[in-house]
Amino acid sequence: MTFSLDFRVHSEVGRVRQNNQDAAYASPHLLLVADGMGGAAAGDLASAVAATEAGSSDRRLGDDHLLEHMAGIMQRANDRLADLIHWNLDLDGMGTTFCGAAFSGTMLGIAHIGDSRGYLLRDGELQQLTHDHSWVQSLIDEGRLTPEQAASHPHRSLILKVLNGSDETEPDFFELEVQAGDVVLFCSDGLSGLVSDEELRTLAGGEDLDEAVARLAALANANGGYDNISLVLARVVPQRDDLDARPGVLAGSALEREIPKVVPDDGPGYPEPPEAVNLDHGSDETARYAPRDTKRRWAPVLAALVAVLLLLGGAFWAVRLYSASRYFVAAANGHVAIFNGLPGTLLGRPLHRLVEERDTLVEDLPVHYQQQVAGTISAPDLQAATETADILAEHARRCSAERTRRDRAPAPTPGGQPTVAPLPTVPDASVPAQPSPAGPPTLLTAPSSGAAESDPEGC
């Protein structure tokens, strides 16, 4: 039996944010929510790219090509982000989640990266289809945090994987066979983070889809509306020609943000500068452009010297003022420490002061993070620096425990060697996440999955 989708799409700013960095797209063949991040680095542009690419690639497919189709959309969106960042480095740091599905009439091919979510409501039971790529979810997976604790965790907005133009996206792909009456919901964390699963189950199961969408958005706003709120709600119904003929609908930043056209590297480039023009002013005019030397030639020299001193003094004051607002994490006496200011000196005077020396030993860290601490890790404020030091302490604890476990492991037998369990996954916090009310994320950069430093021996 073949089915159709009766869908609704909604995206709004919420009660706190100044602009909408979410985007959404819905059609008879494709559903998508994208939550941009990067703030000034154009999170709204990133989500708009994802939704626009979905809209331009939308078409009806058979069951055999759904996941391939979704992978292609994600790859093209990611490539577009890479091109934009290469064209304008001010955009470096933008990224977006991607959570949606292609529909064949009997099957959903679901693609997911980030912490936007997909849900299935079937026979009155709500099931979360996707698995968050977030820091708190990794703690839940390790048994160190409960879902209830994660809901109010200060780092709940820290995401480990997004589309950001890099080559290492690693999305999740899977298929779902649909049934008549199924309700599918894709949403950003502006909804799932403020509305409970029970409330989602009750409201999404309403008979009137327009009313269900309105009530879900209203409840998220009533619970604070701290983030942009975007959702696509679709009910699986017996095949109907009128539903299959509906046009696709864009929402959110995809309607508000213009996507720049990238200038190709092999373009015509900048024009050559014009040739210099020879101006012959005659002897009288020459005198005016080249004054004769006089006994008071020291005056312009003195003025230039004063100007240089003022310039240096102003620069020194500006650097000192700027450094007072910055923080970084580096080594002090072999320990991880937090500093206020900037690394280095100016005119022989240090531009930083020690704020806190932690108990965390640098030598206990994995090799990758030892190198980062040695090179200093910048932070925009004290909270971000503290969060970075906290996560370094956790890496050191894990690494130390791993070394102890290896030291106590039995010696290799002739038949093989004892298995060494890998370290838990290290969060990729190089991906810029949306700021949460609790503050900005840490600025650590995790090693790639193929790097030697990510191996337990890297400890």
From TrEMBL:
It comes from the Bacteria. CDD domains: PP2Cc. The chain crosses the membrane at residues 298-319. Residues 6-236 form the PPM-type phosphatase domain. The keyword Ion transport does not apply. Residues 396-409 have a biased composition (Basic and acidic residues). Gene3D superfamilies: PPM-type phosphatase domain. InterPro entries: PPM-type-like_dom_sf (IPR036457), PPM-type_phosphatase-like_dom (IPR001932). Keywords: Membrane, Transmembrane, Transmembrane helix. SUPFAM superfamilies: PP2C-like. Residues 396-459 are annotated as: Disordered. This is Protein phosphatase.
